[in-house]
Design a protein that fits this description.
Structural class: alpha/beta
Oligomer: single chain
CATH superfamily of the largest domain: Spore Coat Polysaccharide Biosynthesis Protein SpsA, Chain A
Radius of gyration: 37 Å
CATH class of the largest domain: Alpha Beta
Number of strands: 8
Number of helices: 9
Helix content: 40-55%
Strand order of the largest sheet: 3-2-1-4-7-6-8-5
Distance between the termini: 136 Å
Shape: elongated
Number of domains: 2
Largest sheet: 8 strands, mixed
CATH architecture of the largest domain: Alpha-Beta Complex
């Protein structure tokens, strides 16, 4: 296939970041990468920036009326020709080896619908990490069917996965109106259809943190999270109910463990109090012993004085020579 990977870059008013995203695609060690930029009705200078960058980087450009992040990604999917799909938000960028590493893994492991990597949080264009966040410690179950672990938490951004295009064609793309959690809903939906994934413990993606991140819009994120969970609960009621039951059992286990811990704390407190009482008793005895030692010393001193007087009188009573 001429294009092993299609990189889909949705862009809405983030033209200032596009050069770094496109450069990271051009620097990929995997040859033949297709790049698609979807201008989702931007009101900034995204169109002009893309026109200027067209002479430096090879990419396909599509412009549409603003329809939201999910619609923009879906538009890119429709144009994509690659065997695998990489979603790259305009403000993020890729490690040069990302596509080669993840594509090779999928080529060699046909049981996985997608794999996903670790990330580096950055604020610049140079890959300087600003924290120690890692996807690999977010959840207990990282590979296989991650339906349950995703419901509990451990979200990973859409830059992490590389997914088979045929998987998206079979099970659908991003759900419109779920923009902030459209990717979360997609990963849950794929797991609901028993599509397996694999976590690769390599930092191959750069996630840019800035004041305009969609994730900082708490009202939008809360609303889309609830909508995504509702959709999954309706689409996979049995799976959702079972995972909810497991969650209840998990919390019951935590509750029982907390009760046992509290009882142990009470027991240890009583033992500590008894130990303190014994320590106080020992301190009292030590004080009394020291008092007896002091009294004994006084008596010994008094005896010594008496003995000295006796010796003095004895020497006087000795007959003279």
């Amino acid at each position: 296939m001429s294009n092993p990977v299609s990189v889909i870059i949705p862009c809405y008013n983030q033209g200032r970041y596009l050069e770094r995203a496109l450069r990271s695609c051009a620097e990929q060690t995997l040859p033949g990468v297709e790049v698609i930029v979807v201008n989702d009705g931007s009101s900034d200078d995204t169109q002009e920036i893309c026109a200027a960058l067209a002479g430096r980087y090879h990419f396909r450009y599509h412009e549409q009326v603003n329809g939201g992040l999910a619609n923009a990604r879906n538009a890119g999917i429709r144009f994509a020709k690659g065997k695998y799909l990489q979603f790259l938000d305009a403000d993020d960028y890729l490690h040069p080896a990302k596509l080669e590493v993840q594509a090779r893994h999928l080529d060699e492991n046909l049981q996985y619908a997608y794999n996903y990597c670790d990330i580096i949080h950055v604020q610049d264009d140079f890959g300087v990490s600003i924290n120690q966040v890692t996807v690999g410690t977010a959840r207990k179950i990282l590979t296989g069917n991650i339906f349950g672990s995703l419901l509990i938490g451990g979200f990973f951004p859409p830059i992490c996965p590389l997914i088979r295009r045929e998987t998206i064609e079979q099970f659908g793309g991003f759900t419109p109106k779920l923009d902030g959690h459209a990717d979360y809903e997609l990963w849950l939906r794929l797991a609901g259809h028993n599509q397996l994934c694999c976590y690769l413990d390599e930092k191959l993606a750069y996630y840019r943190v800035h004041e305009d991140n969609m994730s900082k819009d708490s009202a939008h994120m809360n609303q889309t999270f609830v909508a995504a969970i509702q959709k999954i609960a309706v689409e996979f009621p049995a799976l959702f109910a079972e995972q909810f039951r497991q969650l209840i059992l998990f919390h019951e286990g935590i509750f029982s463990a907390n009760i046992a811990l509290q009882m142990k704390e009470i027991e240890l407190f009583a033992e500590t109090q008894a130990l303190h009482a014994k320590i106080n008793q020992c301190n009292t005895l030590q004080t009394e012993v020291q008092g007896l030692r002091d009294y004994t010393k006084c008596l010994e001193d008094e005896v010594a004085k008496k003995n000295a007087i006796i010796e003095k009188f004895r020497s006087k009573l000795k007959p003279s020579g």
